[in-house]
Amino acid sequence: MKVLVAVKRVVDYNVKVRPKADGSDVDTANVKMSINPFCEIAVEEAVRLKEKGVVSEIVAVSMGPKQCQEQIRTALALGADRGIQVETDAELQPLAVAKCLKALVEKEEPQLVILGKQSIDGDNNQTGQMLAALTGMGQGTFASEVNVEEGSVKVTREIDGGLQTVELTLPAVVTTDLRLNEPRYASLPNIMKAKKKPLDTTTPDELGVDIAPRTKTLKVEPPAERQAGIKVADVAELVEKLKSEAKVI
Amino acid sequence: MSILVIAEHDNAELKGATLNTIAAAKAIGGDIDVLVAGSGCGAAAEAAAKAEGVSKVLVADNAAYEHQLAENVAKLVADLGKNYSHVLAPATTTGKNMLPRAAALLDVQPISDIIAVEGADTFKRPIYAGNVIATVQSSDAIKVASVRTTAFDPVAAEGGSAAVESVDIAEDAAVSKFVGEELAVSDRPELTAARVVISGGRGMQNGENFELLYKVADKLGAAVGASRAAVDAGFVPNDMQVGQTGKIVAPDLYVAVGISGAIQHLAGMKDSKVIVAINKDEEAPIFSVADYGLVADLFDAVPELETKL
After folding, report:
1. How much is the pTM?
2. Nearest residue, CB atoms, B183 vs list A130, A162, A178
3. What are the residue ranges of helices labelled H in chain B?
4. Could you report the per-residue pLDDT of A164-181, keeping only the tens digit for each?
5. Is the peptide bond before B251 cis (omega within 30 degrees of 0)?
6. Is the confidence metric ipTM above 0.90 for this complex?
7. Do B239 and A158 touch (CB under 8 A)?
8. Strand, coil or helix: A29
9. Chain B (60-119) residues lying within 8 Å, Cβ to Cβ, of chain A
């Protein structure tokens, strides 16, 4: 069966971003960009399913400006078979991404769509759920274990109280949690091979999707700064301060 | 304006997160209806009717909603949501699972994890692991938002007397099935609602050493959390994880033990009133947000802390 994996180009997780001085946007000039960590886990899961013989083809897709081809190439180096870029310089909100993915799902007819549970820039945690809604598929969000069976997939999900397992009829949408797997590193030969793998480009217009944003960012600002605290000498002083000064115990 | 709040519950009990979400609805202003979708959920509905500020409780009692499967509940929420100006749910795993699905069915771009209400269509929310606060304005006819519960003080659980009305819509998308669940059992308070939280990181070295934290927690009536490193190393289960991808807590007192303080962990706890860090590395980033820092070996400091409390 075929798997579609969505990957996003984001500011690297180690970078501490700051708002621009005028509060119009986050300053992402000259900042290291990477594949979103949850998307990397999604690619890894697809590759493992292929290695198990469950999956025959992995299609990696990303949306955004020209540069997001780098993230598709990363997915190809990790083991995806071909890539699709939906090219646009416009701002894409999760609803628009979900609609573009729906158009691609109708064209490619995958049995499984794997996404990360959230991107570490927008922190929305929406796209997978919205794609599932638009296509009418079942959704296995925050997955820590995925088992494909005949005609269905069993997904163990991380929920607030522990774990929950659901069974979804295929085709289905799965979003990955951190504990689903440990992504591999791309080897140099695989990075070289990835350059030769097919990568098609399309646009939201060609897919017939209206990507007009529904929400407007009025401003961005840094969060309230915490005041630097003090160092205490020993446990006795700590307990004393918590009791008399902070009055929290 | 009329607001539909989706209740968080386990059929028997209404969860505290619902009361925080009602508080966010009050900040928007307007009539507040609460939807309790479940199976045999009469008790949860009764509890919702007593919450302060609720006009009406809608109960959808049907086997299809028993385990809150998103496929079924989202359809119900989209059906009912058409008649409201706002649909809110707590940003719990249940809310995050269901609400975007309902929003897509309504053709609306939802807003995740709001921390402040600036107006009926304008909200603040954290992005980039809480390093940036964005003010966003929605142009959608129906505003669909999940609420970061730690950012809103809960409304009173008693004193209200809302009418309870049953909703006779049974949605079964028939694409998903509940198989089973494994819930962690604990006598300690719930992590997201606890007044005191004590968390351990990689410095705890193994799962047995968390016993040290449990002892302190029992003396303080605290909940015990963990960093991602401690969870990934298998010291404790993942539902104890505090951070960008785990739970967001904002207790009166947060004690970080053997936690370095990575951006992703700080995202989950830096709104705590008082932060204490116990770490032997005095360069650890956690000290830059801690009100009280103790540079010491946790294996000496934590047992001593327990005896001194």
Report:
1. 0.95
2. A162
3. 16-28, 42-50, 70-81, 93-105, 210-220, 228-232, 263-266, 298-308
4. 999 999 999 999 999 999
5. no
6. yes
7. yes
8. coil
9. 67, 69-71, 74, 92-94, 96-105, 107-113
